[in-house]
Structure formats: structure tokens, C-alpha cells
Design brief:
Elements: H1 3-20, H2 31-38, H3 43-59, H4 66-70, H5 88-98, H6 103-110, H7 113-126
Length: about 130
């Protein structure tokens, strides 16, 4: 998702939370206090957490599973000229490289579910 999309989604959720917990214009509350009062995490953190949880789940699947094979699929052909779009795979690989890891190391980490959960929560807490 683009930053603009995440920002719009974040605004929509904050508006909904302010309506559910009657917080209207005269009585203002900071967004941080709103997230704390409602027990919600920011949207960007939720998206990252779900993405990495899904990656761990998919890595633990058998090698003949099509979802697992999609990680290593490399489409053939050429793209239009210009700046390449940021694909899901490129985004994921850049996040992995920021943590000084490789796909094979990630596959090894994902085998241990408890460790993977702590890895994902640490990774997503950095994204705020």
C-alpha cells in the first residue's frame, strides 16, 4: 500500500473511533491517546504485522503449495519503460535486507513459531 492509501485509511479509522467513543470537536484528544484509549494499534503497524504473520504462515507450508512457490516466482517478459513500480516482493526483500537477513534465514526463523511471533512484534514496533 502507498503512504497516501495508508494515511486515508488511518484517517477513516480515527474518525470512526471518535464517533464510537463520543469524542467530538470541542473536546479534543491526541491520536496517541485515542489509540491507547481504544486499545487499537496504528494502521501501518497492523498492516505490517498481518503481512509478516502471513509470510511466516506461508513459509511453513509444504514446498508444493502454490502460495509458497509464489515467493520464488519470477515472471518473464519486459515492463514498460520508466520507474519500476514497487512490487510486494521488492518491498518485502528491502525490509528483509534492512534487518540484515536473507530469504533462507527468514525461512529458518519462521520454522519456530514462538520466535517468529517475537520477531514480527519487534519488526512492527520499529515501523511506527
Amino acid at each position: 500500500m502507498t503512504e497516501k492509501t495508508v494515511s486515508k485509511l488511518q484517517t477513516f479509522i480515527k474518525t470512526g473511533l471518535r464517533r464510537i467513543h463520543p469524542i467530538y470537536w470541542p473536546s479534543t484528544i491526541s491520536n496517541f491517546n485515542l489509540w491507547e484509549a481504544t486499545g487499537q494499534a496504528p494502521v501501518k503497524r497492523q498492516i505490517m504485522s498481518r503481512k509478516w504473520t502471513w509470510i511466516g504462515h506461508t513459509i511453513r507450508r509444504p514446498m508444493d503449495c502454490i502460495a509458497r512457490q509464489a515467493f520464488h516466482w519470477n515472471p518473464q517478459g519486459s515492463r514498460r519503460s520508466g520507474r519500476p513500480r514497487n512490487s510486494w516482493r521488492r518491498n518485502t526483500e528491502s525490509t528483509i535486507q534492512m534487518n540484515n537477513c536473507t530469504w533462507t534465514q527468514m525461512e529458518r526463523l519462521a520454522r519456530d513459531r514462538g520466535y517468529w511471533r517475537s520477531f514480527v512484534s519487534g519488526l512492527c514496533s520499529e515501523m511506527e
